[in-house]
Write the structure tokens for this entry.
Amino acid sequence: MKKLTEAPTIHETATVTDCTLGKWTEVQAHVSMREVAFGDYSYIVKHGNAVWATIGKFCSIAEGARINPGNHATWRAAQHHFTYRAAQFDLGDDDEAFFQWRKDHWVTIGHDVWIGHGVTVLPGVRIGDGAVIGAGAVVSRDVEPYTIMGGVPSREIKRRFSEAQGAALQRIAWWDWSHDELRAALPDIRALPIEAFIEKYHRI
């Protein structure tokens, strides 16, 4: 049985550059991450890719997901990356302003978000707490909390919970609980209907 620890678990084939990884996190095989803040308990499955993103706690990122793939300069006469990676081709200096433009389109993903197999989250998108992104979706616009999205481009399929229930869960913010508090509440998380869970924990 695989056991994680408070220290991040990073597979030997993964590439993690200039990232901040929280407690109990896991980065699986052949994942590439650069300049990502990765919240406690989150994991990213093999062959995933994430760049210039803030990813909340308890996020589940399935195989082959791409978060913030780079845009090309479609407004230029040539969109090939020789125009901004010129040094690779002995054509001059790299275009640092272009790379800053890319970085300015940061992706922000909330807590307890499930991103399915092969999902692409495009630059600049914000995904709210508790959202679900169905397998193969291309997310090109912001996603409201506790909504289920799917398709290309993605669209709302339904809500996981009502707006009031979602807002209550955000106030409860169980993702900020301590490890011991999570352990104590686990039976309720598993068994209680959502309204009963909110009723029990909204005063805490």
User: Anything to note?
Assistant: Residues 171 and 202 are 7 Å apart (CA to CA). The longest strand covers residues 32-38. The chain has a mean pLDDT of 96. Residues 179-191 form the longest helix (13 residues).
